[in-house]
Design goal:
single chain; 277 residues; alpha+beta; 5-stranded antiparallel β-sheet; 10 helices; 60% helix
Length: 277
């Protein structure tokens, strides 16, 4: 019996060593603890994150290592896991340097299926987030530059149309009608092409803008959504008029109507409102 006990104990010891090695090899901070929050295991990255050096924190309460704002969020997500038996992933700032982390939490159970504790892996995303923000800023600058180029093209087209209209009096009635037809078709096709190119670039930068806009006001017309997108770039009424082949007065009226439809207070700035979506 003693021999069997020793053999089983050795098997358990080997498994524990394997688990410790596995936890130690994880490149992110990792900790696991009971449903009461008592730490069962951790790796060195977890200690480094909270500046605990080589302390043996097994048997201590997990929540003591977080500041007040972190602690409330951490505890509430634990309760969500315990009550609903589901994994939780969220983003927050952690550690002495308050860097950005994605916290992934999963529950673990015993052989009978009883909930025993929670396993947590914390992945730093500060550099990734910075790279993403830099990329988005670059795309925004490119989009604004593209919009300005389209405005210049639109203005050139308008000048060309103005010059063509001057030819009316120098041609026959039939020729004048033909020119009017050509100009009308040119206006329509130019407007469609300009907007398609702009919208494709806009959606590449502000992927969730239209979804956010629809959730706030699903009754907006396509023209109003177009105006919202252009205002999101903080373009002036004059620039928007050039892009949409309208005059500035028409854009000002459209902005006023849009404010009313979005139920904005007089002190609320329309552009600031759209930039928050």
């Amino acid at each position: 019996s003693m021999k069997e006990i020793k053999e089983k104990y050795q098997i358990i010891e080997n498994k524990n060593k394997f688990i410790e090695t596995l936890i130690g090899s994880v490149p992110q901070p990792l900790v696991y603890y009971t449903i009461d929050g008592i730490i069962s295991g951790f790796n060195s990255h977890f200690l480094n994150l909270f500046d605990l050096e080589d302390q043996n924190i097994a048997g201590t309460l997990i929540y003591r290592y977080f500041n007040e704002s972190e602690r409330n969020l951490y505890f509430n997500t634990d309760m969500d896991i315990i009550n609903n038996r589901r994994d939780v992933i969220y983003e927050c700032k952690l550690g002495k340097e308050q860097k950005d982390y994605v916290v992934s939490k999963s529950s673990y159970s015993d052989a009978a299926g009883n909930l025993k504790g929670i396993l947590v892996v914390m992945t730093e995303i500060s550099e990734l987030k910075k790279a993403h923000n830099d990329l988005m800023e670059s795309k925004k600058r490119e989009l604004t530059s593209s919009a300005l180029r389209l405005i210049q093209i639109s203005e050139m087209n308008n000048n060309l149309i103005t010059e063509l209209e001057k030819v009316y009096e120098h041609t026959s009635p039939k020729g004048a009608n033909l020119l009017k037809s050509i100009i009308s078709q040119f206006n329509i096709s130019s407007g469609i092409n300009v907007w398609k190119e702009f919208e494709a670039r806009f959606e590449n930068v502000f992927e969730s803008f239209y979804d956010g806009l629809n959730s706030r006001n699903p009754d907006l017309t396509p023209g109003e959504k177009k105006l919202c997108a252009l205002l999101r770039l903080n373009l002036s009424s004059k620039d928007i008029a050039a892009l949409t082949f309208q005059n500035s007065q028409s854009i000002d009226v459209a902005r006023y109507r849009l404010r009313k439809k979005l139920n904005l207070n007089p002190e609320e700035n329309l552009v600031d409102f759209l930039m928050k979506i």
